[in-house]
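Hello forum,

I keep getting stuck at the same step: I have a sequence, I want structure tokens, and every attempt I make locally crashes halfway through. Rather than fight my setup again tonight, could one of you with a working pipeline run this one for me? It's a single chain of 136 residues.
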Amino acid sequence: MLTKICGRCGRKIKINEQCECQKQRHKEYDRHSRNKESAAIYHSKMWKLLSDDCKRKCNGLDLYALHIKHKLVKGTLSHHIIEITEDNNRAYDQSNLIYLSDKSHAEIHEAYKKSEMSKGKMQGILFDILKAGGGT
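Reply #2:
Ran it on my machine without issues. Output:
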């Protein structure tokens, strides 16, 4: 049995499983921080199918790390380039999704927080990655 160490709590877990501390963290975030409309989207069957499709199209790789840093990194989540809070109509739009690792996701959100100009530039980069054949 292959195992890995949870980056959050240091516990040993099976390689294809999520640590209990991560599951608990997500539950708390959904309960106390996440917008209720967004939570409904992320828990829907349609979102799960769309996210799985996004992952399949890029073979589970982080497209940002692949195209910008030229590194092969395993992705973990589908990211809305135009955020749901910005345009709720694009929540289930495949052309608005890019598959990322947690590290790239955090880096992208840091760019989003800096300024509207920085956010727009980052969104342009992400759409360019998709146009260049990322995830198709």
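Residues 50 and 94 are 7 Å apart (CA to CA). If your local run keeps crashing, start a new thread with the error log.
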